[in-house]
Write a structure and sequence with these properties.
This protein has a domain of about 120 residues. By secondary structure, it is mainly alpha-helical. α3 crosses α6, α4 crosses α6 and α5 crosses α6. The longest helix has about 35 residues. The N terminus is likely disordered. The protein is elongated.
Length: about 180
Amino acid sequence: MFQHDLFPSERCDEQAKRSASRPPLDLPAILERLTASCERPRYSFMVLNLIAQAGAGTGSAGPHIREGDTIIPIRDWLCDALLPVAQRDPRRLALSQKVRRELEAERVLPADLELAQRLVDEKVGERLRRSGRTNVSRAVSELVRAGLITRHYQGYRVDHRNRGAKRQAVYTVVPEARRALGSGK
């Protein structure tokens, strides 16, 4: 049975069985587990920390996060929180230039330099969020496999085991990991 095929209570039981055979978690043990089970352990660690921060009170983050006056899905919030990490990445700068060229070719780039830059930044942000969602989902799947978080979906059918149909992810940091990260009691 796949992890996402389980109801939340069944996932907790499965998680307890897996964690019973592992030594107690501390920060070095989390890093070791991430290094062993993740393609990008540093990125996964940042995602884990952000989820732990967002769910500081209960350990669960999602399906939405309040950002000022707006409410956004947890994956979008994680993407936005991780965007500054790639600020100086040469690929991001190249993407900005590519978007500018595309907008110029479509003849939709305003003559006002400030407006043009805002439009380019907006289009780059849309593309980065789209690819960021994929990166976040991959990191979360690795964190689930590492036994550091659990995931279920809420929405039209609350806590339904099937994805899709307007359901949004909820991520829960396991209590041991919360304690090791300093966000749990």
